[in-house]
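chain below, 346 aa
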Amino acid sequence: MNDLLSLYQKIVPEMIETLEKRYNILRNIYYNQPIGRRALANSLNIGERVVRTEINVLKDQGLLSVETIGMSITEEGKDVVERLKEQIHRFKGLNYLEKSLEKELNIRKVIIVPGNSDEDELILKDIGKATSNYIVDKLEKNSIIGITGGTTMAQVAEEMPVYKKKSDLLVLPARGGLGENVETQANNIAAKLAQKLCGNYKLLHVPDNLSEEAMEALLSVKEIKEVVDIMRNINMLVFGIGRADIMASRRHFSDDVVKHLCENRAVAESFGHYFNTKGKIIWETNTIGISLSDFKNIKTIIGVASGENKAEAIISICRLKEDMTLITDEGAAKKILNIVSTATFK
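prediction:
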């Protein structure tokens, strides 16, 4: 198959380009339907004339329907989009890229979706879908899932298929964080994920960045202590990987703390800890939830981050546990390989 693909690329390289272009058009319509030609052209950053030509081809093939309110994808079109994902993955050599990253980062598994979320916001939906599929594949009887907050995790819950059969799984927020945007709070994401999976959930009503006295007081509350105790039994953690500078700004750290993070080259944040590129802790906040020791003992760890701007942060977090899965995009994956190829990160 790979030899045949290489032959196609040499003889008719435009075939791959055309296939990817039409796949992106179908995918964009799928996520934004109904959508007009002009809006589609703007989203894809290509001319309306090109869009019109391609739309006519896809319509003639029965993959699209065009109505007054805009274009929509047909059932056959949805099937084609799903089937093309794997082909696009092969055409771009992402299987090889995954294996290369597994070796360089020294982790168990890497899953890469095509594209770069820094350039195409729809890639985040693909990341969410890939993660939700992987979660379902790894579920066990009586699974206890911990999930963090953030935009990426919210997309994972959004893309999770709805299950109608009652399950015995339990979903928990992996840490506190009241005061954030409601849609991206870990509590809200945990509840939505549990509902999609037809399971149960518990909430953790505590703020982030606590003082020692506040932590002690909250941990004496029966309902909070109960959730924290259950956290010790989490067997699957799904978490986002943040950039240290962005997360420090978002949490309104003092100038002294920001300076400390900068001087010590902190590049990543996860579950309240800030790390340098070697995975060494530079700073940690007082928060109720998953600790670093908990993290290292959890059976199934799924880290999710996309965009080449997250490359250093991803490298840092992958230093923490070899037996983990990373789900990322093509942009981040290529940037990571470029970085780790230098002596500084060896």
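The chain is about 50% helix and 15% strand. The chain has two domains: 2-84, 94-345.
thats it, cya
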